Amino acid sequence: MSDKIIVFVTCESEDQAERIAQSAVTSKFAACVNVVRGIRSCYVWEGKLTWSDEVLLLIKTTRGRFNQLQDRIKELHSYSVPEIVAVTIDTAFDKYLDWIDTSVGA
Predict the structure, then answer these.
(1) Taking the model in full, what pTM does it have?
(2) Which distant-in-sequence residues (6+ apart) come within 8 Å of 55 by Cβ?
(3) Residue closest to 86 by CA, chosen among 26, 4, 18
(4) CA gap 101, 79 in Å, rounded
(5) What are the tens digits of pLDDT across the range 46-62?
(6) How many helices (H) and strands (E) does the chain have?
(7) Which domains does the chain have, with CATH numbers?
(8) Model confidence over 1-14: pLDDT tens digits?
């Protein structure tokens, strides 16, 4: 099993998403962050069906950096319960995985 992960985070605005992305990369908590605009989310919040226009972050990092990354996201995020979901990268180009390690200082 790889220690590399992709962390999904939805944000309420492009500004918020870009602040989180830049902070994650410059702090070496992440190797790369994709900012995906135009996400439309449907969910129940406080008992009410809600639709939101959001921005999705795809953050590439390692399990060893996850807690630091999560803490930074919580500091910069406006939601009381932000989506912070990590999935394992099972298979990927080995040089890309090495680059993630180099980028986060693993």
Answers:
(1) 0.95
(2) 10, 11, 12, 13, 14, 16, 17, 35, 36, 37, 39
(3) 4
(4) 30
(5) 999 999 999 999 999 99
(6) 3, 4
(7) 4-104 (3.30.70.120)
(8) 689 999 999 999 99
